[in-house]
Amino acid sequence: MRRITRIATVGIASAALALSATACGGKKSSDTGSTASAGTKAASVAIAYDIGGRGDQSFNDAAYAGLQKAEKELGVKGSEAEPTEGEGEADKVQRLTELARKGNNPVIGVGFSYAPAIKKVAPKFPNTTFGIIDDTSVTGPNIANLVFNEEQGSYLAGVAAAKASKTGTVGFIGGVEVPLIKKFEAGFTQGVKDTNPNAKVLSQYLTQPPNFDGFSKPDLGKAAAQGQLDGGADVVYAAAGLAGSGAIEATAAKGKWAIGVDSDQYNQAGLSKYKDHILTSVTKDVSAAVFNEIKSVQDGKPATGEIRYGLDANGVGLADSNPEYKKMAELIAAVEKAKADIIAKKITVKTAP
Hints:
This protein is α/β, with parallel strands linked by helices.
């Protein structure tokens, strides 16, 4: 697997800019990605990471797991591209352009922040499939929108938090106040209140757009969690990417329960010292979304349009890896009932607070 480091990305971006300038001269751009899987040479595929990059123990790492699985089971060659700190839309455009020009197919942008770039780049490479995770705002004949019902998984987390809490106060930490993260907050709060109407939910966002540090700086998550713990919360759920690891650290230090997000954070090596205090995690099967998209292209039937992963197909869910979680019979029963009711449409989960 080829990994483009943060430093290398800058150089590659410059090269891509030069290539783009050449293409603007009226000559049709070459797109070899569509034929890579047809020959005997291993096809090449690529993912471009979101803020925080690989190693966030959460969202990006889930995408990486899907790429790893594709390499192992489909025999493709994977490339990874890392974001640069403080980058803008032009950087993403250059990154995606370079990945497409190298013949990668599909090219998958991990996160809604890639939407403007994919809108610009995808039409220039009509034979390459572009996937984007967590966004439906940009569409096209060669664009796959890989989206999830985060509010449903978060509802289950709210049920679990309300059942596990001894103080009746729980916390929600959102990385950046954007519509996507508000889905997490809405589902969590509804799940808590439906389970214990007298419960108190402390909600806080780390940053406001265009400042996206709330997805990448653990110290911000740590400080927010400490504040909520001081305010009486004994369960804290953070939907904040890499910053969420700071919230988990602070919560574990106080001997309280943390709820992870995106990946099963109980099993993340980088969080192993805190795992005993990670009650559960709201999982999004980003790994399957990435793998399935790659496989569809390799099978010659690229999946495009909105591809939604919900609770009904285990596209979102609640992890039960912590042995202590498995001992909580009443909590588990409440979560399972809520899951069944959501799938049966007896419960409609809000997507905004």
